[in-house]
Specification:
The chain has 5 helices and 5 strands. The protein is α/β, with parallel strands linked by helices.
Length: 123
Amino acid sequence: MIVDRSLLAANLYKLLLAPLGAVIAVRRRFEEARPDIARRGAVQLLIINCNAVGKKYSEVAAELEREASLADVPKVFFCEEGEAESIMRKRLAQIPKAEVISRPFHPDEFAALVNKLLRRETR
């Protein structure tokens, strides 16, 4: 699942992940993703752009840590490199099975990370 306020960016991520043959759902806000997140087995990989979380990042992080259906699900967060988001990046990186990628990033780095995470999950 991809959570990103920008449908253009979400579609780009889908294109980058197309070779994996994955079925990818897109939600524009974290609140819209909650029902899917709560269903056990509905999400095998969660990709969240920090623009969909905003100032509620601490609440979202706590929710993701509590959500039993996501305990073993890898999570990837896209955050800006700026100093203003450094606290957010540090907090999100503390979530179990979370990886934080700074934007802008190279598409090959993103694809390699997703491949690594998904291989780890299928073992």
